[in-house]
Design a protein that fits this description.
This protein has about 375 residues and is α/β, with parallel strands linked by helices. Helix content is about 50%, strand content about 15%. It has 13 helices and 11 strands.
Length: about 375
């Protein structure tokens, strides 16, 4: 009996000691080491819609993880130049970046092989392609995201769709455009490789310039025209003071989607619940960013119309010009899609999905918008 009492007493002591240890150690469990990432963007601090979206994603991640996962966001030019972030994330120098996938067709992919990989263009936008709703549906309801992951996998990167920044404007021009012939000899700053190639087919020159440098080049006459995004961001750059004619629609960027991209090792090294938080944060910011873009452009367009009347002309591209551009765009898209097996696969998927949602867009919204505009 005494042996039994001794055993119970000893066991009780051990349980009590374990409980005490658990209480003492509990703060260490709660205050476990934080995971801290660095994210650079391809956009300077002047582009508040883009920067705010990246910051919002970091905020959602931190709040949803209870502070366990923090992402420091740096605008382009702060810790690296805007177009350096792809390689930096690929090599593990940073953990993530925000950009547009069409930036990487030539400059970055050539470092990994003899060919360009034009497939990356389709994940951002295609001339006369789907709108932002169609793009989001292709990524999340079709196989767009799966193909995007496959395209980026050789570079140790994991992509996720960012906010849509479309529809955009066709851009700022120093001279009026009345026919397709007016593009001959034109030096045009344009961010999209596919859209730029359309201008080249029309006889112009496409120039890829970081957003922060567009004003200086247009103001000095280094380029004759420039597209950036829409009224809000364009006015922040001061483009409305460098060219008179502001054309629409942005046929080259009808459904532009930005991207959040993560270093694969860093992403896969996260606990599963933090990976899911990161994925859902990117999805949430699609909504926040698109609504921010939509509202700010509406205000900026009104500002342009009211305060710069007589100095700026907001003009629709003539129907014949748009039809000619569409024909040239079809040639460019076909040519680029045939360059690599991945581009062929991505283009086939994109085209099939656009053919699916296009008729619905026409029935659901096309006639309505024509009526409202009329």
């Amino acid at each position: 009996m005494s042996e039994r009492r001794r055993f119970i007493t000893t066991a009780s002591g051990l349980v009590a000691a374990a409980a005490t240890a658990a209480i003492v150690d509990a703060p260490h469990v709660i205050a476990q080491p934080k995971i801290q990432w660095r994210m650079s963007t391809a956009f300077s601090a002047a582009f508040d819609v883009h920067l705010r979206a990246a910051q919002q994603m970091a905020k959602v991640v931190e709040e949803a993880s209870g502070g366990r996962f923090q992402i420091a966001v740096f605008p382009g030019g702060q810790i690296m130049q805007p177009f350096e972030c792809f390689d930096a994330a690929s090599q593990g120098k940073i953990d993530a970046f925000m950009a547009n996938s069409y930036y990487w067709t030539d400059r970055k992919y050539r470092q990994h092989g003899p060919e360009e990989e034009p497939a990356v263009e389709w994940f951002s936008t295609v001339p006369f392609g789907m709108n932002t709703e169609g793009m989001s549906a292709w990524f999340l309801q079709g196989d767009g995201l799966k193909l995007w992951e496959e395209t980026y996998a050789p570079f140790n990167l994991v992509p996720r769709p960012g906010p849509g920044v479309a529809p955009q404007m066709a851009g700022w021009f120093r001279k009026k455009t009345t026919t397709i012939a007016d593009f001959k000899g034109l030096k045009m700053r344009i961010g999209t490789g596919l859209g730029g190639k359309v201008y080249v087919k029309a006889g112009g020159t496409a120039v890829l310039t970081p957003g922060a440098d567009i004003y200086a080049e247009l103001e000095r006459g280094v380029i004759d025209a420039a597209e950036w995004i829409g009224p809000h961001d364009d006015m922040k750059l001061g483009l409305h003071t460098t060219a008179r004619y502001y054309y629409y629609p942005g046929w080259h960027e009808a459904g532009t989607m930005t991207e959040f991209v993560f270093n694969k090792k860093a992403y896969e090294g996260l606990p599963v619940e933090l990976r899911r938080i990161l994925d859902h944060a990117a999805a949430a910011v699609q909504v926040y960013g698109l609504s921010d873009y939509h509202a700010k452009n509406a205000l900026a367009l009104e500002h342009l119309k009211m305060d710069f009347k007589g100095k700026v002309e907001i003009i629709q591209l003539p129907g014949p010009v748009l039809r000619d551009l569409r024909k040239l765009a079809a040639e460019v898209v076909r040519e680029q899609s045939e360059k690599t097996p991945m581009a062929r696969k991505v283009h086939a998927s994109f085209s099939k999905f656009q053919a699916l949602v296009g008729p619905w867009d026409h029935v659901a919204e096309g006639a309505y918008h024509q009526l409202v505009e009329g």
